[in-house]
Amino acid sequence: MAGAIGLAALLGWSGQLWWLGAAISEGPGIRPVTGACLLALSLGLITARRLTTGTFVGAARWALALALTGSGALAVWRLVHLFFGIGMPQRPSSPHTVSTMVLLGIAVAASVDAGWARRRLAILCALGGAIVTWLALLGYVTTMPMFFAVPGDPSTGMSVATAVALLAIAVGVMGVFPHHGVVALFTTESEGGTLMRVLLPTAVLFPLAIGGLRNHGQTVGWFGREVGLALNLGITSVIMIALVLWIGVIFKRREAEQRAAELDREELLAGLRSSLDALSKLQNNLVTVCAWTQRVLDQGKWMRFEEFLNTRLHISVSHGISEDAAQEEIQSLEDWMSQSASDDSLAPRKPPGA
């Protein structure tokens, strides 16, 4: 997505989302140089992912080198213009956009063959870039230009299309490490992961949604500024109360599941201890077995061996036949059939007509 936005900017798209004009405030457009940076960062992220997974390693290294070189050159160019005001005759570069691109460029470069230190650097830089872009989007939906533009110069700032593209790149960098950092915490089944899955989407999306609704309502004349502020505070309060209750229910349910699992484990251990105690008693005591019926004497009662195992050791017994016993039975049957045939042949026959 970020690469598509960058390519569209290179082809002349201004980045203005006219169909969201009633929900977001108007801001600066996207410039071709920003599109080139977005395209370079997207290519660098894709190749970094290929190198991490071990596919297309040779070509990916060259593509990554070109992407990082290009994005680095563009970042230096924009930094020089930002701090020294030379090199670009157009309006000044946005500090929001330049700082975010520098952070994400470092994150993409550090995500290749990352050890512990480089992986941590990549995740931290990606988080920093994501925070800047989210604040820019929050400024658009809440009509606060200071979040996305230079104070006193609304034409110099991060466009909404650039903010969306850079946020996608930041999320993509964190997605390179699914078993580390924010992504790992988000997917884990621990209490921290549960809290994050409940609170993070609400904390990220709710201010954007309520800000856009408030902005749209005031723009089309549904309500005035005071009513919009009251709705904002009221809905925010209700959502926070609902989140607290939801988290309480989740933790209560998890505690009940853990308690049930502990009870099952204790019952299993108790049964195992009982069986071990019974086995220990049997090992220490003499068991009387009838030499004729093979029954076992237990507490003054003769019982079958299977019943003894089930009563004393809680062992269920099924029956089968061994190969030796089966062979003996077959041989006994064959002998009986042979003997029967011999007896029939020796029996006297009655004369015909008798």
Write structural notes for this entry.
By secondary structure, the chain is mainly α. The protein has three domains: 186 residues; 77 residues; 32 residues, no CATH class. It has eleven helices and five strands; from the N terminus they run αααααββααααβββαα. The strands form two sheets. A three-stranded antiparallel β-sheet has the order 3-4-5. The chain has a two-stranded antiparallel sheet with strand order 1-2. The longest helix has 60 residues. It is elongated, with a radius of gyration of 39 Å. It starts with a helix and ends in an 8-residue tail after the last helix.
Oligomer: single chain
What count of helical segments does DSSP give? 11
Mean pLDDT over all positions: 76
Shape: elongated
N-C termini distance: 109 Å
Q: SSE string, helix = H, strand = E? A: HHHHHEEHHHHEEEHH
The order of strands across the largest sheet is 3-4-5
Structural class by helix and strand composition:
mainly alpha
Q: What is the number of beta strands?
A: 5
Count of domain modules: 3
Q: Quote the beta fraction.
A: under 5%
Rg, alpha carbons: 39 Å
Helix content: 55-70%
Largest sheet: 3 strands, antiparallel
Q: List unreliable stretches of 5+ residues.
A: none
